[in-house]
Amino acid sequence: MNQQAISDRSAELIMRYYDNDYMPFLSSFADDALWYGPAEGQFIRGREAMIRAWLAEEHDLRFTIGSLKAVHISAHPSTCNVMLTYTVVTHYPDGHDLSVFQRRLLCWGERREKDADGSVQKVPRILVCHISNPHGKHEDDMIYPVNYSQVYAGEKAQPQRGERIHFHGVDRSDYFYFSDAIYWIEAANDGKHSVLHTTSGDFRVMSSVASLEKQFPHLFLRCHQSFLINPHYLRNIRRFAVTLADGTELPIPEKKYTAFRNRAVKLFEIGIER
Description:
Blueprint lengths: L2 H15 L5 H5 L1 E8 L6 E3 L1 H10 L5 E12 L5 E13 L5 E18 L5 E12 L16 H4 L12 E5 L5 E5 L3 E7 L4 E6 L2 E5 L3 H7 L5 E4 L2 E3 L4 E5 L2 E4 L4 E3 L5 H14 L4
Parallel strand pairs: 1-6
Antiparallel strand pairs: 1-2, 3-4, 3-8, 4-5, 5-6, 7-8, 9-10, 9-13, 10-11, 12-13, 14-15, 15-16
């Protein structure tokens, strides 16, 4: 079993799940898989029982998932445990939002299954899904906390937007961020790696500032050899520094100042791409 591929697949399935495309996620479970959470006491045994429960659920909820981190470990070549942590915002039809930080453990294992032609193949399946910070269950809720809007009527969360980016962390984690969650990026380890300064903390990733600039020229501006900034958070440009919305001040080399300023102004005149 390819551990990295399983980690990436887990993240992709969760992102699709919160786009209300949940069947690929549920179809990845083993026949006798176990589901625990997110509602307190919610315990479901078997893939078919999970699918029936989700098909019976009717709701008009939308979700935004951000700051997704996937960490995988394995004690055997045929197993992989993936811990997913992320923030999910539930958007209710009445306009209220609820933001929750969630931890989800997916335990994968290989199962022998027959193909359409009758041949037997080893297929990775989710054996256990455990959500470790469950919410209280309202008697009218089946899967999602649709009645939480009554409790959290005063809360309004800002959904994360922009382009979804996958980063490989130096700690062997995988980070999945919306571009709008990133304030700025700083070179580290003599330029070999980078530090993401985000709305949920700082994280060190394998990519260099130069490679990220080349890969995402429409998302970030390079104000200095060691820094990329997210122009959505640009608040002030002066000789020879730039100030971001979080109060961070970064230098601009004197020889690069005019070119940087002109590019930043042009971005706002034509509209920053998303």
